[in-house]
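The protein record reproduced below.
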Amino acid sequence: MLLADEDNKSKISGPTLGWRRGVSRVRILSGDSVTLQQLGTNTEKLVEQMAKKGEVVCVTGGSGGIGSWLVRLLLERGYTVHATVKDLNDEKETKHLEAMEGAESRLTLFQIDLLDYNSILSAVSGTTGVFHLASPCTVDEVHDPEKDLLDPAIKGTINVLTAAKELGVQRVVLTSSISAIVPSPNWPADVVKNEDCWTDVEYCKQKGRWYPLSKTLAEKAAWEFAKEKDLDVVVVNPGTVLGTYITPSLNASMTVLLRLLQGWTDPQEDFFMGAVHFKDVALAHILVYETASAKGRHLCVESICHWSDFAAKVAELYPEYNIPR
C-alpha cells in the first residue's frame, strides 16, 4: 500500500503532422510497501535526473488532473515524455503542458482516441514505460454507459496494453481507482478493506454505478491481459483526488467540490471517502514505476472521512459559501 505524503495538503483521415515552436506536436486521427519519502532528497535530484535523461515514457491522459502533475514531475526527474491529449487544438489541454520546465526539449504531445489502436501505437512507440491514466470519468448522468464509459475504459486499456506488448515496453503503470475496491456491500464488516478487495460488479450494474463498474472491469481485464501476455503491469488505486490543480479544466472530483461551494443539494449516499492530493498520486505512479520490486495493486489514500464530515470541513474552510451539511 502507498501512503501519501501529508506535506502536500491543500484547501482544497490519416496521420497529420503539426509543429509548434517549442514542444513537439504529433496529431494522429485514425508490491512491496514503500513510502513517498523514498523518492529522495533534493541532494539526489541531479543524480536522478542524469540517470533518467534519455529514458522515454508515455503518459496517456496527460492533460488531466493527475496526468498533468505526472508529466510535470517526470520532466523534473529528467524523463522524456510522450503525453496524450484528446484534441491538440484545445489550448485547455495543451498550453499548461507546453509551459512546463523541460517541455521545450523533452515533451511531445500526441492526439489519440482510446478506441483507435493506431493512434495509441504512435504515442507508445519509442518508449520504455507507459503510464495509462486516460479513462472517462463523470459525475453527471450517463445516458449510454457502454459508449460513454465502459468501451473507452475497457477496450482503451486493452489497446494500450496491446501496444505496449507489441512495442516491447518494459513496464505499464495503470491508474485504476478506489472505485475498483469499493463499493462492495457484502464485504464482511469485520474485515479491513485493502488491495485484496474488489468492487461488487453485479451491485454496480443493479444500481447504475457505471464509473466504478468501468474501473473494475478495466482493471480486471488488464490483469488478465498481463497474465496471458506476460506483460509487467503495476496498478495504482487512488481515492478521491483533490488539492492544488494545475490544469484549466476541472476533473470529476474537483467538480464535486465546486458543486458543494455552489450549494449542491442532491442527495448523497451514506458513505466514507478516501482523499489524496494530486501530487501524491503522481508521485505514487513514479514510485511503482521506478521500484523494480513493486507489483500488484497499490491503494493510494491519505485520509478517510465521512461525506458529511467532508462537507462540514469545506464549509469551515469557505464560510462565505452556503454549503449544505
